């Protein structure tokens, strides 16, 4: 879906997604010392807002101005400071080694598009920093609930790890997430990767 399509989708509802942060991001990040964070493809900013509330200095990037405006309004109502950046993550390059945390949550793209975004996300992680990627897993289509019906938009932990050169992978798992439906609880399957850049790593300037 293009920028106009997402703008229309956000504009059609008061809140497209919950403003609660992703449970897996919370688990991976909650114990970290706050620093500078980057939320790639932030949508309405649920994770960015939670990070800011925890004391992180957050830059949140998305190409939907409608979603960013909604996040900004929520941040204002909560007295939170977030830098909202309107940019297409397929084209936008974050500064290298600039963020203590980089989060990529449910960015479901064709692999030819997703892989460069993941590589740039990894390069944005500072020495000692953490990258967390979570999204609908490839197996969710046949074994889980919800998420894209197009298998080309799903990925595995191994797909993510393959793009994280220079980072040390601490976790690469398939994780299960309960989903409440009108017919009872179902289970979604997500891919979850956490990786770190060891301190004193050499910057690749080639």
Key structural traits:
206 residues; alpha/beta; Rossmann fold; seven-stranded mixed β-sheet; 7 helices
Topology (SSEs and partners):
Elements: H1 3-11, H2 23-29, E1 36-40, H3 46-53, E2 57-62, H4 65-78, E3 82-86, E4 99-105, H5 111-123, E5 125-136, H6 140-143, H7 157-161, E6 168-181, E7 184-196
Parallel strand pairs: 1-2, 1-4, 2-3, 4-5
Antiparallel strand pairs: 5-7, 6-7
What does this molecule look like?
The chain is α/β, with parallel strands linked by helices. The protein has one domain (3-126, 140-196): Rossmann fold (3-Layer(aba) Sandwich). Helices cover 29% and strands 30% of the residues. The chain has helices at 3-11, 23-29, 46-53, 65-78, 111-123, 140-143, 157-161, and strands spanning 36-40, 57-62, 82-86, 99-105, 125-136, 168-181, 184-196. Strands 3-2-1-4-5-7-6 form a 7-stranded mixed β-sheet. Strand 1, helix 3 and strand 2 form a beta-alpha-beta unit. 41% of the residues are buried. The model has no long low-confidence stretch (mean pLDDT 91).
Total number of helices: 7
What amount of the residues lies in strands? 25-35%
Q: How can the largest sheet be summarized? A: 7 strands, mixed
**CATH fold-level name:** Rossmann fold
Instruction: Note the run of SSEs as H and E.
Output: HHEHEHEEHEHHEE
Low-pLDDT segments, ≥5 res = none
Q: Kindly provide the radius of gyration, computed on alpha-carbon positions and rounded to a whole number of angstroms.
A: 16 Å
């Amino acid at each position: 879906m293009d920028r106009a399509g997402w703008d229309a989708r956000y504009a059609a509802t008061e809140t497209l997604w919950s403003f609660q942060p992703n449970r897996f991001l919370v688990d991976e990040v909650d114990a970290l010392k706050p620093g500078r964070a980057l939320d790639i493809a932030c949508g309405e900013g649920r994770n960015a807002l939670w990070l800011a509330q925890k004391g992180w200095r957050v830059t949140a990037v998305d190409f939907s101005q409608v979603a960013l405006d909604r996040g900004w309004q929520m941040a204002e109502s909560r007295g939170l400071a977030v830098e909202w950046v309107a940019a297409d993550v397929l084209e936008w390059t974050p500064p290298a080694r600039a963020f203590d945390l980089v989060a990529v949550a449910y960015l479901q793209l064709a692999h030819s598009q997703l892989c460069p975004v993941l590589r740039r996300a990894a390069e944005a992680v500072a020495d000692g920093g953490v990258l967390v990627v979570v999204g609908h897993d490839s197996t969710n289509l046949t074994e889980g609930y919800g998420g894209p019906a197009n298998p080309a938009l799903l990925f595995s932990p191994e797909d993510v790890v393959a793009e994280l050169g220079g980072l040390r992978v601490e976790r690469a798992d398939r994780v299960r997430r309960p989903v409440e439906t009108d017919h009872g609880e179902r289970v979604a399957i997500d891919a979850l990767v956490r990786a770190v850049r060891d301190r004193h790593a050499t910057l690749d300037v080639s």
